Amino acid sequence: MLVLLPPSETKATGGRGAPLDLAALGHPGLTAVRRTLLDALVALAADVGGSLVALGLGPKQTHEVARNAQLLSSPTMPALQRYTGVLYDALDARTLTPRARARLAVSSALFGLLRATDPVPAYRLSAGSTLPGLGGLRTLWRPVLTPTLAAVDELVVDLRSGAYAALGPAPGAVTATVLTERPDGSRTVVSHLNKSHKGRLARALVSSRAEPHDAAGVARVAARAGLRVELVGEHEVVVLTDDAGHAR
Predict the structure, then answer these.
(1) How many Å apart are CA 164 and CA 111, to the nearest integer?
(2) For the whole prediction, is pTM greater than 0.85?
């Protein structure tokens, strides 16, 4: 089983690893697109104003442009340590076993697909960004990322957001949706709870001794971890919470 995580806009700073080496990353079939995007981001960083517009940033986020300018020289750290935020707090990757971490991968607008241990620098690029001369990222990634994911010979549990899933669909994957159920029975998506419970679900799946082969297996593991889940067809599970974020 491979659990595919979304990235985060926020990244941890620093690192102790050597500067980025594309040859050290997994999935070498993605190297050409990675190099194209790296070169484009570094070049764009020379134009701070243009970078802010292309990356959808505000005037107080020029430090993100500075990060991109140093992509090829700044220190690296493993992907699971680089990404931060609500989902990654709930995942608590530092306390996972090596076996559990090996069952995780991260989707990335810049790198396509990362193993948990792949060493990467801090950067800023989102799935919806449009870089000058390159256009939308979906056009670049889809032809190489989709076959990469299709070649995974185990169940993929896809926890990415829609924008990142569009970069390269994972054929046959089990997807998960988190919905908040109100007292009147209505259901809605709440961003904060969505991320937190996806982190909990990911942790439960990779920590389990079970090896799910379908959505029903994913639901069983989630239920044993205290999550309330429902099956929706053959390839989707829904995780339900209440307004306070508790599993219901």
Answers:
(1) 12
(2) yes
